Amino acid sequence: MLIRQKLPLLALLLGLAGTVQATEECATAVQCNQVGSAAYQDGRFEQACEAFERQLRRVEEGDRAQLELALNNLILANLRAGNTGMARAWLGVALHNNLSGSSTRLHLRKVAEALDYQALAASPAGRYLRYAGQAVWSELLISEDGNGGYHASFSPVRAGARVEEYGPAALGELEGKLVGDAVQMHLEDAGLGADCAVQLLREGITVQVLEVFADGCQDYGGMGISVAGDYIKVAARPR
Q1: Could you give the count of Cα atoms lying within 13 Å of 199 in the half-sphere of its Cβ?
Q2: What gap in Å lies between CA 219 and CA 213, rounded to an integer?
Q3: At what angle do helices 64-81 and 29-41 cross, to 10 degrees?
Q4: Contact 162, 168 (CB under 8 A)
Q5: 132-174 residue pLDDT tens
Q6: pLDDT digits (tens, 9 = 90+) for 218-228
Q7: Cβ 211 vs Cβ 112: under 8 Å
Q8: What is the DSSP string of 102-168?
Q9: C-alpha to C-alpha distance for 18 and 142, rounded to whole angstroms
Q10: What span, in angstroms and rounded, lies between the C-alpha atoms of 52 and 34?
């Protein structure tokens, strides 16, 4: 359930679509919560998610109760929008932060009931996300190559502190052929050096990516960019 907050007595990337005043009205976490809640109540779930992402950016390094509120707003809004994979991804961020309030526990059950885990885990193909902070995600797309194998396309992101004003601090792009048994795979034909291995371990709807960190191995992106980390599958199709 969304929790509405009252204004104190003393008072990413995109602005909210469909309302000219949204950016101005969403200068604080409280205001973003109100803007998002109003959009949610009107059934404008995409706009609600955008406002709640802005809310999250304003509390991510602060109060844990406010962080949990923003994340639960995102979980619920994505569920209502039918984006169950994204709801599961936001739930993962809450769990990673060891948040365990009553709303988080309730949404854990709701997400489990709504998400078709079996269908999502049936094939490696799909869209995977890795949280980069500041309501920004790195992306991994795995698609069938037409020859019985798979192709991987990574779009890693380093969010930075001012992603709303200037966009991500750094971006990367890496793609190639996946070789393996759909559980353990490695990247080939990606233009990397011979010693720059990238390996993937797939378990259900998660993929763990390991890479070698050495001179020249991260030349596919800007400063601080890496494809390594844990990804969660949010859609059965790459796009």
Answers
A1: 9
A2: 11
A3: 20
A4: no
A5: 999 999 999 999 998 889 999 999 999 988 898 889 999 999 9
A6: 999 999 999 99
A7: no
A8: HHHHHHHHHHHHH--HHHHTS-S-EEEEEEEETTEEEEEEEEE-SSS-EEEEEE-EE--S-HHHH--
A9: 33
A10: 9
Q: Phi and psi (nearest 5°) for 152? A: -115, 140
The residue assigned the tokens 């790195």 is: 138
Contact status, residue 15 vs residue 23, Cβ threshold 8 Å: yes
Does residue 179 carry a pLDDT above 80?
yes
Sign of CA dihedral 24, 26, 28, 30: positive
Q: Which residue has the tokens 């309501």?
A: 135
Give the angle 104-106-109 at the CA atoms, nearest 5°.
110
Dist CA 69 CA 77 (whole Å) = 12
Q: Tokens 């990804």 correspond to what residue? A: 231
**What is the Cα–Cα distance from 20 to 13, expressed in whole angstroms?**
15
Query: CA 83 to CA 2: how far, in whole Å?
Result: 17
| C-alpha 118: how far from chain center | 21
Place of tokens 């309302």: 19
- Tokens 């365990």 belong to residue: 100
Q: In whole angstroms, what is the distance from residue 165 CA to residue 52 CA?
A: 17
Element (H, E) at 70: helix 64-81
**Across residues 92-101, what is the average pLDDT?**
96
Structure tokens that stand for 181 in this block: 């048994």
